[in-house]
């Protein structure tokens, strides 16, 4: 059986899986030794990826011919690409991020080392906690949408009633994180969730 046919079967299997997954994928066709010779399979080749939940990096696809009882593992290189916000210029600690500071680029998933952002509006107005170099992915741990001692809007209430007041953040927080804030009027310390730049939501 021609090595090209075996490689194509492995590539087709991975391509089918990536069509059902999130993000964009690039698949590098496997290269098998041209000297490889296996008996021609009288039926369509069967493909599988045993013991693997990942579609990133090198994926070993098992290609087998059931009637003739032969099988071979074929390595297929897969890269998952996602849109992620990166620094368009060096961002020093303490700087406030503007639209001019950031850009959206396609990044291979393996380069991401923490929670990141897919849209600029998710972090415009946030403050940089640690320096970010040109071209680096901006991680949630690099910024705070609400920073310690910042004046914040506290939105409190339930689905039917909402009260807005000012308070002081007692810790740093990124989007979706819980932080403690102090109500400026009552001086009461409460826990809320960072819902936007300079905004904390409290549910009752």
From TrEMBL:
Name of the featured protein: Flagella basal body P-ring formation protein FlgA
Stated family: Belongs to the FlgA family.
InterPro entries: AFP_Neu5c_C_sf, Flagellar_FlgA, FlgA_N, SAF, SAF_AFP_Neu5Ac, SAF_FlgA
SUPFAM superfamilies assigned: AFP III-like domain
Keyword Protein biosynthesis recorded: no
Described function: Involved in the assembly process of the P-ring formation. It may associate with FlgF on the rod constituting a structure essential for the P-ring assembly or may act as a modulator protein for the P-ring assembly.
Subcellular location field: Periplasm
Gene3D superfamilies: 2.30.30.760, Antifreeze-like/N-acetylneuraminic acid synthase C-terminal domain
Positions of the AFP-like domain: 84-143
PANTHER family reported in the protein's UniProt record: FLAGELLA BASAL BODY P-RING FORMATION PROTEIN FLGA
PROSITE patterns linked to this entry: AFP_LIKE
Presence of keyword Oxidoreductase: no
Gene (UniProt): flgA
Keywords attached to this entry: Bacterial flagellum biogenesis, Cell projection, Cilium, Flagellum, Periplasm, Signal
